[in-house]
Amino acid sequence: MKRHYSIIAVLALLIAPFSAYAFPAKKGDKACVECHKLDKKEAEAIVKKIVPNGTVAEIKVSPLKSVWQIDVDAGEGKRGSLYLDFSKKFLIAGQIVPVESIGKQPPARKVDVSRIPLDDAFILGMATAKKKVIVFTDPDCHYCRQLHTIMKQVTAKRDDIAFALIMHPLPMHKDSPKKAQTIICTKSLDILDDAFSGKPVPEPSATCTADAVERSKALAKSLDFSGTPTLVRDDGVVLSGYLPEDKLLEWIDKKQ
Q: How far is Cα 239 from Cα 224, in angstroms, rounded to an integer?
């Protein structure tokens, strides 16, 4: 029973995105990793003891030095960081927060929107909308399905907002790649809605290749997007996870 509660506690901590507080790499980090090693396989073996579905997105030296920061994706939009000391005997679950930042709003994560091609994207809403939000999504992701309903509600009320959906099937969803492939190839709103409603989706046709899906996965990786849904506002501000309709509209309209 105690182990059950510890897993729930860690998953709760993993709901926060990695980038709540960003720390630049220091020159001394290189010296640390020359003497101490932690590979992905070893890290995942440790992580899975308390987060069975967890996968390791990245390993780096934490701001504390002598401590590894293990960025973990627990699936369904839950992700965050665990910390392991160099002796590999102690695991810390929680955030490392610089004292000077306490009480301050952490800086928003931003990406260069020009790095995100939309050739393979599915546009939900008016193509001429002034405000476009890019959404990396997965048809078998529970939170993506909730967001899909919210996005349809938003576009039904606001013709100045559109969403560019980029299919990013996650590794733990074995049927997602084919569903994403069919969505991209057909560009069918009905098939898109069926997929995000949990209904059966046709198999990709013989002429429908997986190239676009692979391009989208590579794009997400290049941007360090490991979970879904991940939203990018047209000014490059990133939002991990989903918001209810009113909060989503506030976020979209709050262009910096």
A: 13
